[in-house]
Specification:
By secondary structure, the chain is mainly beta. The chain has 1 helix and 11 strands. It has one helix spanning 3-11; strands spanning 23-25, 61-66, 71-78, 84-92, 95-107, 110-117, 128-134, 137-141, 150-156, 160-169, 172-181. The longest helix is centred in the first third of the chain and has 9 residues, at 3-11.
């Protein structure tokens, strides 16, 4: 596999640089076992359930998902101002191919997840506003973006997380599920 083909594979991933194991058509995906399901088909509640970006600090650190191609990763760092910066991509052998830079920040009373995906959207960031935070899950949305337009994170026991992204691909509803662990 060439570096160019690996880079193309990484560019196809829009969240966490993780290779997906399933793609399903439809607007819903099952919540991971032991978590509270977030109804992603209904209108998301207002930001009344969120307090501040500190609730997301558990993301801090290295998350990974080994595969045949390499190790997909998401790496988060806490900043002095309480925001978080990260990157995601793939480690193949001794090479790290980063496909996204990530920011989670609070502006006034709203929290934003802001990925910048290399080779997409003219390399400009795309803000997703937090629309729901319930127990150990939270939802970010940008209804004007095609795929993804909704990102749902689930914090799981034993240093694991699941992320599910939703949107439209080729005019059809689609979702992708990502499993990561420390």
């Amino acid at each position: 596999m060439t570096v160019k083909s690996i880079q193309r594979s990484v560019q196809l991933v829009t969240l966490a640089g993780v290779l997906t194991s399933t793609i399903s058509c439809g607007n819903t995906a099952e919540a991971p076992a032991g978590t509270t399901a977030v109804d992603t088909t209904a209108a998301a509640p207002n930001n009344t359930t969120q307090s501040d970006v500190h609730e997301l600090h558990w993301l801090n650190g290295w998350w990974q998902n080994p595969s045949e191609v390499g190790i997909a990763f998401e790496d988060w760092k806490l900043n002095d101002n309480g925001s978080m910066t990260g990157r995601s991509g793939m480690v193949v052998g001794k090479d790290t191919i980063a496909s996204e830079t990530l920011v989670i920040e609070q502006k006034e009373n709203k929290i934003y997840y802001i990925p910048t995906v290399k080779g997409q959207n003219n390399d400009q960031p795309i803000p997703f506003e937090m629309t729901s935070a319930v127990a150990d899950s939270f939802v970010f949305e940008n209804k004007e973006h095609d795929f993804p337009n909704r990102i749902v994170y689930y914090k799981l026991p034993n240093n694991k997380l699941t992320a599910v992204i939703y949107g439209t691909m080729n005019g059809q509803p689609a979702s992708e599920r990502f499993e990561l662990s420390r």
